[in-house]
Amino acid sequence: MANIRTLSVLCVMPVVIAACGNDDGGAGVGGAAGTVTTGGAGGTATTGGAGGTAATGGTGGTTTTGGTGGTTTTGGTGGTAATGGAGGTSGTSHYVRSGATGAGDGSDWTNACTDFTGSCAIGSLVRGDTYYVADGAYASRNFNTAANGNLVITIKKATVADHGTATGWVNTYGDGQAIFNSVVTFSTDDWVMDGSARDESNPPVSWFNTTSYGFKISNNANAAQVQLKFGAALDNFTLRHVWLEGRAGGFSGAERRYSIDCETGGTSTNLLFSRNLSTDSNQWYFLRGTDHTTIEYWAGDRLTGDGNNHGDAINAYFTAEDVTIRWGVARNACTTGCTGMIPVADSHGTSTPPLVKLYGNLFYDYGSTDGTMGFLGNQANGGNCTNCVVTNNTFVDGGAEFASTWGLQFPDGSGNIHRNNIWFEVNSQIPNFSLGSGATNSHNAFGTSATSTGTNAQVSMPSSTFVNFAGKNFKLASATSCGIALPAPYDRDMLGKLRGADGCWDRGAFEF
């Protein structure tokens, strides 16, 4: 290797960040993500895992989503997490299958409910139980079953490997997709909606395989503006292995074309969005009115906006607090009409824990007017990042029309950390950084331009550093200059590879 491999170690202080437990047997902070076809051992269907504290995430284990031999992406045991999300259940299994002709009582696959109607109607759902869903088409629903303590209702895609009872089961019930019509609404606490599987054969490229997701929330023949929303402020919600098919095409006036819309006028807490794909729309995640949210192993493709409809990948604007965005990929996003990939404004003025933690992500072929992350406003209008952490991300080509503002825009912020990132500009589009007061800005790498920012910068990094720049494979073909070593959960990349194991902590989203 051309670089001298020396490893610096730096603890993150005073920012304290708890590692999220593996919600589903994926890479998390403790191991590589699995494949769709082979599954690690999960919990038993009758025992729940250890719970998190009420402040950090409600109940814990993913026992009804794992099962020995289940899909790998749903296999591991749950754990406490800084941002929580709903955990596992310990009750009875029920069965839902479009086209079933039996008694319709949901007792097995022969007598399955045909939708969330009859014995499986929303008002009849049992707290603590699991509802397995077969391939097929299902109607739009408002899941508003009254909460009972912190007992979770799990809506789970049935698969060949994990489908509950064998009575009446046929493998073709679980080898495809269950498709819910938009809008799917959740209005009470403690839910898990888990599609059980996606394509992990070649991550992150395979994450864009739309048909591999167990659940799809459709755009209703391109008519629905929102795919999933909260009907009221809620606590402890998990969504995973779901393709959110947004509405595509041109806008007609002002539209609320959002894949996930969390705004209710109240504050929703302890939210986990894991292993989901968002396509089209002008907002993938609208997080206004949320606290303690994690978005992980995510993928987003095709995002747009116009003068009436701001385009944002993940909107953490004004009333979103403690957001973790990690191990995801955004592409083909906001070439026109976008505020930023991640607009951030702190309505509270300060944020402890950090307002936003962004790490291990890849962004390419995108644009932004107020910066890749941030906001060109001021404190009177909401302020900017406070104690935000931006580390080990790869940003490629912020868009020619936004060359002056495609970096980080935190002009009113303070205490922010920006390090170990790669900014690879095209055609000398130099990223701009306004990090606020008291910022840490070091060990970042920059592409074709020799212009840099911060200390210990790597400049003029060639495109050959990537496996195939022209082919948009931004994994590393060779080492970068060494960055700063950080504690968990920053010590893994999106593929589960341990950072710095060879003595050098590489910059960017991928470890060499």
Name a few traits of the molecule.
12-stranded parallel β-sheet, mainly beta
Provide a brief overview of the structure.
This protein is an all-beta fold.
**Class by helix and strand content?**
mainly beta
Q: Mean pLDDT, as a whole number?
A: 80
Sum up the overall morphology in one term.
globular
Tally the helices. 1
How helical, in percent, are the residues? Answer: under 10%
- Provide the low-confidence segments as ranges: 1-83
Could you describe the largest sheet, including whether it forms a barrel? 12 strands, parallel
CA-CA gap between termini: 11 Å
The tally of beta strands, per DSSP, is: 38
Query: Numbering strands along the chain, what is their spatial order in the largest sheet?
Result: 2-3-6-9-12-15-18-21-25-28-31-34
Strand content: 25-35%
Radius of gyration, CA atoms, in whole angstroms: 22 Å
Q: How would you sum up this structure, described in words?
A:
It is globular, with a radius of gyration of 22 Å. The protein is mainly beta. It is 1% helix and 28% strand. Strand 36 and strand 37 (473-476) form a beta hairpin.
Summarize the helices and strands and which ones pair or pack:
Blueprint: E1 8-9, H1 63-66, E2 93-96, E3 130-133, E4 136-138, E5 142-143, E6 153-157, E7 178-180, E8 184-186, E9 191-194, E10 215-217, E11 228-230, E12 235-240, E13 242-245, E14 258-261, E15 268-274, E16 277-279, E17 283-286, E18 290-296, E19 299-303, E20 311-318, E21 320-326, E22 329-333, E23 338-340, E24 342-346, E25 356-359, E26 362-366, E27 373-374, E28 389-391, E29 394-396, E30 408-409, E31 417-419, E32 422-424, E33 433-434, E34 440-442, E35 445-446, E36 466-468, E37 473-476, E38 484-485
Parallel strand pairs: 1-38, 2-3, 3-6, 4-7, 5-8, 6-9, 7-10, 8-11, 9-12, 10-13, 11-14, 12-15, 13-16, 14-17, 15-18, 16-19, 17-20, 18-21, 19-22, 20-23, 20-24, 21-25, 22-26, 24-27, 25-28, 26-29, 27-30, 28-31, 29-32, 30-33, 31-34, 32-35
Antiparallel strand pairs: 36-37
